[in-house]
Amino acid sequence: MNIRTPPFEKVLIANRGEIATRIIRTLREMGICSVAIHHRIERRSRHVEAADEAIEIFGETPVSAHLDGPQIIAAALAQGAQAIHPGYGFLSENASFARSVREAGLTFIGPDAETISLMGDKISARTFAEAQGVPVAPSVIPTGDLGAFIHAAERIGFPLLVKAAAGGGGKGMSIVRSADGLAEAARIAASEAERYFGDGRVYAERYIERPRHIEVQVLGDGLGNAIHLFERECSVQRRFQKIIEEAPAVALPGPLREEICAAATRLAAAARYKNAGTVEFILGADGQFYFLEMNTRLQVEHPVTEMITGLDLVRTQVEIAADMGLPLAQSDVRSHGHAIECRICAEDPGRDFLPEIGVIDYLNVPSEPYLRFENALREGQKITADFDPMLAKLVVHGPDRGHAVERGIGALRDLAILGVRTNVDYLAGILDHEAFRAGEVHTGFVAEHSSALLQVLSDHQVLDAAIIVGALGFRAFRDAVFSVPQPHASMEDWRN
Amino acid sequence: MRKIQSSLGTSSTEFRRREAYHRDLVRQFREKQDAARHRRPQRDLERLRQQGKMLPRERIEKLLDPCTPFLELSSLAANMAYEGDAPSASCITGIGIVSGKEVLIHANDSTIKGGAWYPLTVKKVVRAMDIAIENRLPVIHLCDSAGGFLQLQSELFADRQMAGRIFRNQTQLSKMGVKQVALVFGHCTAGGAYVPALSDYNVIVRGTGAVFLGGPPLVKAATGEDVTVAELGGAEMHTSVSGTCDYPAVDEGDAIRIGREIVAQWETANKWACQRETPEDPAYDPEELYGILPDDIKIQFDMREVIARIVDGSRFHEYQPAYGQTLVCGFANIWGFKVGILANNGVLFNDSSLKGAHFIELCNQNNTPLVFLQNITGYIIGRDYERRGITKDGAKMIMAQSCSRVPKFTVMCNGSFGAGNYGMCGRAFDARFVFGWPNHQIGVMGSDQAANTLAEVKLNQMTRSGETIDREEIERVRADTRKAYQQQLSAYYATSELWDDGMIDPVDTRNALGIAISASLNAPLGDAGYGVFRF
Amino acid sequence: MSFTLTLDGKPVLIKILRRHPKLVLEIDGREHVVDPDAESESHAQVLDIDGRVVRFTRAGADDRCMVRLAGRTFVITVPDASALGGSADDQGSEVRAPMPGTVVSIHKSAGHAVKRGDALLTIESMKLQMVLNAGRDGIVGELLRREGERFDKDDILARLADENREG
User: Fold this and answer.
1) Inter-chain CB proximity B518 and A479 less than 8 Å
2) What is the pTM of this model?
3) What is the C-alpha to C-alpha distance for residues C150 and B316, in angstroms, rounded to an integer?
């Protein structure tokens, strides 16, 4: 490999915001020209500024523009790009987009369309995983015969999780605890799935109580070779959305860790997986783990893996897409220390996490060698309802989990994002929580401790200080204090 | 500047006795003042509440900037008139800070006969407007008045310094470029309608505010026209049709808020630069004043002790300390402002009169405001003194004082009698502010002196006409005179008649002077020059 | 006079007790000595409260600001000042022509929901165009003139229907 010649001359990033900025950073390091796409509303975004070239895309809504595959491919061709990096979300797991990219003569920096299809369908993915000897949670697929479905479900045992086959992100999911609610839950899940994913197929599988969400980062070269880059723990979730992720998983016994990672690698290899992917598992308290799904893209939380392995996953993606093969052998993959990522969102924890809109009046990011703040923010930026409320990711690394937690809390305390409410302090509260520090994490963590996490106690000293600082920020108050002439100002409220 | 060395024995029996006496006087003053300010028939207070109105003092408190002082003037005006029917003469005037600016506030008190103007109300308002003109203070009028108190119209309408003078003063103030805003909270009828009309800006409250030259009853009587208050002069009509009023307010709070915003638009006044240092509290406790003042008006005390409890750091630079010692003259600072103080330690002699005149000239030369602390029974009389020219010397002092270009402030601390009042800048001599302590007396002469004089006159009369000397008659003249004088000499009588700008607690003198001096700096210095001194 | 502010939604009373020699503020009865010695590096500032150094960052507009101190973020607001008095018609239900003229364009048709201040019609008179706005929230009831039609001063051009009440 000639290090000096970059594998591509120009890559278009079919994404925006934080991940686009992240990808552009690696492309720049690799000497690859980057092309950003943007809707008019985000024409002054940082990711647009950071890229070498930018091109406007059009759509009824900003999101619809980012979902317009043909337009994006046309843009890539017009700019002379050779490859498209889809980031995460948007079109990253859209098999027909991946196919269209390939057919247009461009390289899709991700797996083949066929793999995307296979893994995109949760039912077919499960079947495939089962065939590779990867444990899957007992489940049942309704075939139209409701009676049989319920009977089969009962055989699996309650509680059950009813899920959409084509979906993700918690939509079309519900927990059913007894046969009574099953038919109704299946009906609702089907209609939700139809609405969000255009595919009303649902299935039911055993619901593991206090499960932990463990996922494994895998890389495949498309020729049947795959390696893993260890696992991540994403158990701290709220309404099925991940908010804190860490690598490696908390206190996983060595043999179990090996078994899980091996299962994931086996799956990726069998699928002749190309590029980066993540295999997600559910781990029960009894040490039993079950395949959940495989995400055929780079994940939001990839930085924690990067921090413990020292690898640049975006670089790896680009190289694999250029058929440069896997970056290293499994035996060379090492993990050191512990990393934690916090997803910072514009939302109000005090009002049930209602998304916030506003303007970023002030931004101050702490700077430490162990800290990454992945974002595309700038002061003065408008936060609107057009896009996802995630503003940034704060990622810290430490020699062990305890250190990482301390550094994370410190970084969140020093971080200042003013202008919209954020969950920064809420996240600090999670990290600081006894149970989190002790590693007692599971997907019900947030629900279990929700009242403790939402109740932020501050003594009068702190509250009064905040009021004083706030009051002095208002012109009318400042005038009342400072703009009164002498001698009146010293006479205060004297009356004769 | 050296600190005055007090030689007061604050634990002596005499001190304690005087202190108890004056504390009691002040307590009585406060009681009367409290009653004048707050005691009203319940039904009048309810009526206001039902109309959705705030009390006048509540309006003022809301108008003023937070944590700022308010110097109320003449709180006991009319306390001995109209059988007490018009406390504070049915209006509140004073100096305060609104939106960071010094303003004069003039508010009708609608809790008293609907805010009707008594003759003394008119006098108090005219005086307030005179203060505004002399000191170039912007004015905020809080209007809520039923109009003139018709039963006493002959005492408040026709003459030069009566009701019309209020409006004349408004026009002159406006001509000088000094701003006025009127907040119309209630009715402004007849002449009263001119207050908002002659103000540069005005705000009117929807529903309760109204401005008209004649109210509905008068209109009906005059032309037979039937019209409601709102149609005739309500907020709607005046702010959108006639243009008489500038800003409609949804309620009183809104009107005050708008008023504050208007004041905030005004330029900051250009004050002339009186010499100023960092203020410092007096080194001696001002409450010791109670023990310094005598409990008998005839007993002398050292004014330096009084000065020491008023001025910054109790520091005083005495001028001609060895000459004319019955008049103490010197420089000091009050709330940082450099002032020249003249204070009486006895009757005025030739030397003290000349010293006073010269010191006043020095202050005018140095642009130093003058503060007169009065305790004067008069100039010395007698053949020797006349031969030495006491009348001329008194005249020179009056000439110097009266032609001063610097602002003057007078505090009547004890006695204020006869020509001494004149020399020491009494009311007639255009002091910017005149204050009186509760114990002071003011008159052409003291009651004893007057009683003895008139008794003497009676005796001479009887002697000349050859009548038998009726001792009883003479004593009756003496007693009657003393009684009449006592009532009319009292500080309460003086302040009731608005011969001063307010009775104040001696302890409040420092702050009152501080605010007064500060207010006075808004007007430029007068022309330099004096008339002819009869040398 | 106290100032009422809200801290994260809860009302708080703050009073100025003294300005000299030190600024003393009172919050719900608790006194604090404040030394507003600000070293402003952009928004990062320092205050001395009761002898303790308080580091904070603050950003915001006229009636709302966010403060970050002691590892927490607070939102402090000044309750809304009431608006200046409205138009001649208190209810805002009638839109009257301020002068004679012609309707240039109609922006909202009958049945449209509008908010106070929304543009309803653009009119022209003596070569000057102006926009007539809704005086209150509500629904457009009827439009009494079409585009291009003339009208006189004080003619009612549009009416808002009875105020929309939320259930």
Assistant:
1) no
2) 0.76
3) 81
